[in-house]
Design brief:
The complex is a heterodimer of chains A (122) and B (504). Chain A is mainly α and 122 residues long. Chain A is 71% helix and 0% strand. Chain B has 19 helices and 2 strands. The chains are: A mainly alpha (122), B mainly alpha (504).
């Protein structure tokens, strides 16, 4: 087991942590709002994965006229992709929260376990 | 024709904006605007498909003039032209049904067009990240449509769908990320070239994540948990539309990604890829059928039946020979017509008799002869009685399994047919060979269940199904029977595409 990789690739470890914490929250908490927060943490892990994979030491921004012929330019594509993915994530959160508001007005609870009991009685 | 491809996505988007602006001015305009948009869409989709099949070569266009592989490419070939027409035609049919059956809200019509835009985009895109974006647009529209039911149950079903669906789409996105890190490109054709020489571990991980993500969206067992509740709690028109199209297009995307991005070479040479897909499909076929047999609520039963049928489709993709892939495409189209028709028929029967559970179907054959007959025809087609399209699809997939000497799958297909017979035949038997126990007190007898599942809330006080609703169901039944014999004329049209996809 190469321990060095833990220190040189610590950003990927944060990605893995965010993904697992997010997935765990999504599954484990009975609170619907916290489930949505878990979903957001999970997605942040993915965003970080794309951004961190695009990092180049000594790279310069890909703007015409910047740097000389020997400069390493950073690919702008991952950042653009993640901007799109963030927009998608915000829309998903908005729809999820709207649904939760409806569930709360209907059943008066945000707790999944209580919700299950109430609906079983219907 | 090439430059018209972006319109397939743009027209429903513009229509969605038009329906919400005109609809906020007068509620009654929402349906006509939506219908008009869909008519234009179906015309364009048919024109594109006929050009592709007559020309024998794919249509492609670079969006915004950015040349691929840097820009986004839209591609229509023999595989997705059929899906494109299916999406458009089914959407028109369900819209006719929804004219009276509801929901009547402006939001429903806007969501409807957004869903069509997302599905069309998923169908024609040739770019992986673009596929993710359209997957999420489709998802968002589908969550909102499920929630157009008036009661709390629909909201709970939609939230569950959203949470599970988002995780699925996110896994798909990580998979794209792995492929992107390995190759630096997102264009499907370019990826196919560069993945062949990329690090096999990275490609394998990417394949597993992409397939798992799409399997969640297709609702394969054990990733189907969102699906029965979402289908059962949604209004009948929405269940019909989503059951017919959303999983179908996701399954198409799975086939597209497998053949056009990872390629058949990878599928057969990689240590786990084919086994992974076959295992997922086999478990799905058996578990879906078994769960369907156990259900008492009609819409839940139909939902679990979809889990099993999509297992069949994915099995065809995994076997990856000419017969099996032809079978998968036929079964995708056939299943969409049959399952959409069954959901709409179930909705119409619920209007006639409040029938929402298996017990309620006693003696329905006498009370609603035409609808019951259509339901019975669609059921038998789903079981796979020749010459219906359900038989042809299964036949090709089974044939492909035997040619590939994939015996376990061949056996599973046979067993699943028997199980399908078990859960559909009991309904047909109840409809025609039993008399209703509560003919006189039908409204009070079934009232409790109808309120509990919220079905009647969306019926808007309809006491009998409109002519349009019945007509759509009957057309679906006729198509289910009529499409079967047509397959032999369709098959040669598909051949050039299959040769490219399967690298024959």
């Amino acid at each position: 087991m190469n321990v060095d990789i833990l220190f040189t690739h610590y950003n990927y470890i944060v990605v893995a942590l965010l993904l697992t914490i997010g997935a765990y929250m999504l599954v484990e908490t009975p609170n619907l709002v916290k489930k949505v927060i878990g979903m957001n943490v999970f997605q942040s892990g993915i965003f970080l994965f794309f951004i961190t994979s695009a990092y180049r030491t000594g790279g310069s921004p890909p703007i015409v006229g910047h740097g000389g012929a020997s400069t390493t330019y950073v690919s702008p594509l991952p950042h653009v992709l993640i901007l799109t993915a963030i927009v998608v994530g915000v829309s998903l959160t908005a729809v999820a929260l709207a649904l939760i508001v409806r569930i709360y007005t209907e059943y008066g609870t945000l707790d999944e376990r209580v919700l299950r009991e109430v609906r079983a009685d219907e | 024709m090439n430059e018209l491809l972006p319109l397939l996505v743009a027209i429903p988007l513009v229509g969605a904006v038009a329906s919400i602006t005109l609809g906020s001015w007068s509620d009654r305009l929402a349906w006509p605007v939506t219908f008009l948009t869909m008519l234009v869409h179906v015309g364009l989709a048919t024109a594109v498909a006929s050009t592709v099949y007559r020309g024998g070569t794919p249509l492609a266009t670079a969006v915004g003039g950015f040349t691929p592989p840097f820009g986004i490419e839209l591609v229509v070939d023999g595989l997705n032209a059929a899906i494109l027409v299916l999406v458009s035609a089914v959407a028109v049919g369900v819209l006719v049904y929804a004219r009276r059956a509801g929901p009547h809200s402006v939001a429903f019509h806007t969501g409807y067009l957004l869903l069509v835009a997302g599905l069309s985009g998923m169908t024609i895109t040739g770019d992986m990240f673009n596929l993710y974006v359209f997957l999420e647009i489709t998802g968002l529209a589908a969550y909102a449509l499920v929630a157009t039911g008036d009661d709390g149950r629909a909201a709970v079903g939609a939230l569950k769908y959203l949470l599970v669906g988002t995780v699925g789409a996110s896994l798909f996105l990580i998979g794209i990320g792995y492929a992107f890190v390995a190759t630096g490109t997102l264009n499907m054709a370019d990826l196919a070239e560069k993945l062949a020489t990329a690090d096999p571990t990275l490609v394998g991980a990417s394949f597993a994540l992409v397939v798992t993500g799409l399997a969640v969206k297709t609702a394969l067992f054990p990733l189907h948990t969102w699906q029965p509740e979402a289908y059962a709690s949604a209004p009948d028109s929405v269940s019909g539309l989503i059951a017919a199209l959303v999983s179908t297009v996701s399954a198409y995307a799975l086939a597209r990604v497998t053949f056009s991005v990872y390629t058949v070479d990878f599928l057969t040479s990689s240590a786990f890829a084919q086994e992974f897909l076959l295992g997922l499909a086999g478990i799905s076929i058996v578990a879906g059928s078994l769960l369907a047999v156990m259900q008492t609520e009609i819409k839940r039963m139909l939902a679990y039946s979809s889990v099993s049928q999509f297992g069949l489709v994915v099995a065809g993709v995994a076997i990856a020979n000419e017969a099996a892939v032809t079978g998968s495409l036929i079964h995708l189209v056939g299943h969409a017509v049959m399952k959409g028709g069954l959901f709409l028929a179930a909705g119409a029967l619920a209007v006639v008799a409040g029938a929402r559970t298996v017990e309620d179907y006693d003696g329905l054959g006498a009370r609603a002869p035409l609808l019951s007959a259509a339901f019975a025809v669609l059921s038998l087609s789903m079981v796979g009685i020749p010459p219906a399209v359900g038989f042809v699809g299964k036949w090709y997939i089974a044939l492909g399994a035997i040619q590939a000497e994939s015996w376990p799958i061949a056996v599973v297909i046979l067993v699943s047919t028997l199980l399908t017979l078990a859960y559909f035949l009991r309904l047909v038997e109840r409809m025609y060979f039993r008399t209703s126990s509560d003919d006189v007190t039908s409204s009070t007898g079934t009232g409790a269940t109808a309120v509990a599942d919220g079905g009647d809330d969306t019926d808007d006080g309809l006491t009998r199904p409109s002519a349009g609703m019945v007509a759509v169901v009957v057309v679906a039944a006729l198509l289910a029977v009529g499409l079967g014999p047509l397959v032999s004329t369709f098959e040669p049209l598909l051949e050039p595409t299959l040769e490219t996809l399967l690298q024959l």
